[in-house]
Amino acid sequence: MTTHAETGSPMPARTTPLMASYQELHRYAPGQEAARGQRFNAFLADVLRWGGLQDVVSDQRGLDGRDETDVAFMLGYTPYIVEAKWERHPIEISPRSKINGRLDGRPPGVRPVLVSMSGFTSTVLNFADYYADVVLLDRTHVEAMVSGLISAETLFYRHLAVTSRRGGSYVPLADLLGNGRQEPSPSLVRFPAQGIDGFPAIAEPGVTATHVLTAGAGWTAGEIDGLTHTDDGRLLWTTMDGVLGVHPATGRTAWTAAPTLCKGPALTTPGGDTLVLAETAVLRLTGEQATLLGGGLQGPGQLMPGRDGSAWVFASQGPRTAQGAGGHTLTRLGDTLADSTSYDVVFQGRVNQAVLARSGALFLAGGGWDVTTRQEDGWRCPRDRWSESVPLTPQASLAVGEHTVLLAGRTGQGGIEQALVAVDTRTHRSTPLLRLPNTTHITSLTADGEDAVHLLTDIRGNDPTPRPHLLHVTIPPSARP
Predict the structure, then answer these.
(1) pTM score, two decimals?
(2) Residue 337 and which of 137, 216, 383, 399 are 20 to 30 A apart at CA?
(3) CA–CA dist 423, 481 (Å, integer)
């Protein structure tokens, strides 16, 4: 039998049972709606059970067979019954009336839920603004639970909290996630281009480093975990409290619609959407709307752009053990949660940074070694391809040029010194670009055109409060082949 290793084709990665079942449900052909509906009831019960709800059952027959409840569960001491629909078009008012009518034969206090994977007509949504007796959930809510973005228990508690305060029975997913802090955004101040005493930026010949922004008064937005640029000239800083839009020319800031507790650099799309990594899911933000693109990620992840405008996410649980635990995965995101495809990246080492070069190669920088692999290689990294890493512990990375990756992180020098280097993904030769003595750590990198980057660092020293410091660095052509 021919194996994936023999053909070089990528190995499909293990995913969560919920993600696998959800993608299987999407494979049902037209005309199989009834079979899919039956499977959907059991699947939805699994989602709710996995999400912390109690006494979950599916396809529950009523007394004397007078009706059938698709799913039933308990939230605390409150019983819920669910009518689940997966149809081609938004549903009308009749299913809502159907489930509401079942309450006459059940004890007081039972709450009805109507789930529609195709959404609801405007008539149903307008009615729900004034009559809150039936909880309405659509595809976005189901996918949020499937992907691991939010547990079922948390979703229903938040839904109850929001509707109790403002009324109605339909709450968009974005309103259940929270969109950053509501207090004023933190302030940043412009730096003199030459910087400030005690925090030099020592550039190699042909490289220029300009100090741009730093935090003014005490930083209030928590730890910073990522940086990316937008087409309108802003920078997006991923913080514990949300994603902050920053104007580097002025230091003005404003919160975006992203939820709290996002991780790593956001990713902007050619259409103007923003992708963020939250919990084990990838969320697409279009204005105030939120949809799921990926989920069930195994371990900490990072978003990466592909060479054809695609979006990818690399996730790692450490090297794969002999017992099958751990491993690295690379997921290509599609237009919906069901379209994502995950692959195993076979590398028996720790990964500090992963980058998709513009050539399409995947570059991994780990504990003392780095390696380059490609999709036609099956994303495999045999030991004879490993190269000794540049002498730093990479904390941020960025693809520039066709075959070049920038790595930034702590050097092996004494004290606290960070460095920025360029690595050729073909030869693994490195070119030093910048040294940053007295810099506590590197936060993130993002491109500014073809020949420059913004480098976000932290200069807090022993202070527990972050002190972000933004630099602008030009990269000579010789360092980005």
Answers:
(1) 0.89
(2) 399
(3) 10
